Amino acid sequence: MIRAEHLVKTYLLGGQEVHALDDVSLAIAPGEMVAIRGPSGSGKSTLMNIMGCLDRPDSGHYYLAGEDVSRLGRNALAEIRNRRIGFIFQNFNLLPRMTALENVELPLHYAGRSDASAAAKEALAIVGLGDRSHHEPNQLSGGQRQRVAVARALVTNPAILLADEPTGALDSKTGEEILTLFKSLNAQGRTILVVTHDASVAAHCQREIYIHDGKITTPPTVVCEDVEEIAGVLERAED
Amino acid sequence: MLFWMIVKVAFKSLMANKLRSMLAMLGIIIGVMAVIAMLAIGTGAKQQILDRISAMGTNLLIIRPSQRGTAGVMSGTQLNLTDDDAKAVLEKVDHVHSLAPCVGRNYQVKFLNQNTNTQILGTTPTYLAIRDFEIDTGRMFTDFDVDHWNRVCVLGPVTATNLFGFSDAVGETVKINGINFLVTGVLKSKGDQGWFNPDDQVIVPYTVDMHILMGVDSLREIDVQADEGADLDDVQEDMYSVMRQRHKIQRGAPDDVMIQNQAQFVDAFSATATTFTILLGTVGGISLLVGGIGIMNIMLVTVTERTREIGIRKAIGAREFDILSQFLIEAMLMSAVGGLTGVAMGIGSAWLVGKLVPEFPTIVRPYSIVLALVFSAGVGIFFGFYPATRAAKLDPIEALRYE
């Protein structure tokens, strides 16, 4: 279903080359729920941007539902994002001044679909917010906002749900609820990719891909886990 | 994305920043208002001039002696236009309906202890029809009076009031330069024409004016009325050739008379008035342009402020065209609302100017409204395009990261 082959992405930072991705290959089968884990600066955001078709690799190939999308133009990528990918962000990224329903309808409008309202209502019902569809984001709690974001990601029936630190802005109880929602969606056959630095979030997934310094490696031993926790705390402090 | 959806979103985001949107629109409002009000003043002035020209009479041609002089130095008017010239024009030129020889000079006019200094115009009874005058009370003097040098006169209404107040002037005797004249009638008022008030003059038989008052034997001008529908330029050409023949002008020598026709007056003054209108309209147009810059400024701020929103929209599948049209429609909506408000205020202010300053009659023509609206929509597109392009070209990753 999803296959990445020899992805390379290099940035120039202050005249110095940084290898954000250094020959990364991976494959994800349909119906899997996979975590991509790594400390901050490991290249997991770059990997997620490429897998989400927001960015293109310098070299290598990325196949989404059998199609090589690594060389498409900007507008073609926008269409791929619209139809094949559902994004869920750390800070929800809902549009203000629009109701939950309008937020969920938005990808369908960009797809030019006329049945937007009905499909959006259905998606909101799936995430358990059928009764909140006419509330604006600032009238909803953090957990509810993230559910709206999940509904928006689901509504186009994409090949993959991409969640970037989906619990990062939530308290642990609400975070658990969102992860439970993910698991139930996965049980219905959804392919889900969760990008996180948090081992406990990754533990909810069936499989974990650990990335460090732009390479896929085995996770470090327990001793290093502490270091990673510190890194996690630092990252949260930064955010 | 559906068009009305974009308009709804654009309207919402304008309403979210009411004061800012209002201020940005204010430039367009004032600009459109200025265009409409200025064009209304220009059009009004033009109409006023055309009305004055048509008040001079219809199908009018005027023959005058040309200025004497060499190498551009004028040294006075020639005294070469005679009564016989007038008779020849009437006989030999086709499509001449009627004509009136004219002489004139200012004299003191007295009635009892009242006196006034005004133009004494010597002419024939046909003058009234040619120059579109009408008699208010009494009657016009006759061709018999002209032929027999009878000392009779017709007063302009202003002159009559100056000498007689509100009492009837007809049948009284006034002294012009010390000579008694019988008042046979008073003219109807035509209104002040700006450069000359036709209501303040005394009309006498031209024979009397020439031989008794002034002691001259040449005419000041010959006013000619051409037949209805005649080509004034053709009539003018014929008159020139008759005059050259009579005055024995050799081939190649310049004319010694100057003939103007009313169509030329209209053309000359219309051209001036049009220039005036264009000038005023341009002033309005420049303020509209400045208003457009205001819109561009606000749109740039809006795009920066909403960078994150643009990133989100792109992440969920908005193409560049979707973003471009969203911001472009927002700018156009602003200029359209501003434009319509400006039209209303422009019509209002034109009306107000016409009320408060009677010297500036204003006329709002539909074309000026269309012009102002098209121009303001154009300004919206033109100045909205750059900010909208900037929004459309944003990198989604950068935009999503924007705080």
Structure notes:
The complex is a heterodimer of chains A (about 240) and B (about 400). Chain A has a single domain (about 1-240), classed as P-loop containing nucleotide triphosphate hydrolases (Rossmann fold, 3-Layer(aba) Sandwich). With about 240 residues, chain A is an alpha/beta fold. In chain A, helix 3 (about 100-110) packs parallel to helix 5 (about 140-155) and helix 4 (about 115-125) crosses helix 5. Chain A has helices spanning about 45-50, 75-85, 100-110, 115-125, 140-155, 170-185, 200, 220-239, and strands at about 1-15, 15-30, 35, 60-65, 65-70, 85-90, 160-165, 190-195, 205-210, 215. The mean pLDDT of chain A is about 90. In chain A, the strands form two sheets. Chain A has a six-stranded mixed beta sheet with strand order 6-7-8-3-9-10. In chain A, strands 2-1-4-5 form a four-stranded antiparallel beta sheet, with helices on one face. In chain A, strand 1 (about 1-15) and strand 2 (about 15-30) form a beta hairpin. With about 400 residues, chain B is an alpha+beta fold. Chain B has two domains: about 5-50 and about 270-400, no CATH class; about 100-230, no CATH class. Chain B contains 13 helices and twelve strands. Chain B has helices at about 5-15, 20-55, 85-90, 125-130, 145, 155-165, 205-215, 230-245, 260-305, 305-315, 320-355, 365-390, 395-400; strands at about 60-65, 65-70, 75, 95-110, 115-125, 135-140, 150-155, 175, 180-185, 200-205, 220-225, 255-260. In chain B, the strands form two sheets. Chain B has a six-stranded mixed β-barrel. In chain B, strands 2-3 form a two-stranded antiparallel ribbon. In chain B, strand 8 and strand 9 (about 180-185) form a beta hairpin. The radius of gyration of chain B is 33 Å and the shape is elongated. Chain B starts with a helix and ends with a helix. The model of chain B has no long low-confidence stretch (mean pLDDT about 90). The interface of A and B includes residues 82, 107 and 110 of A.
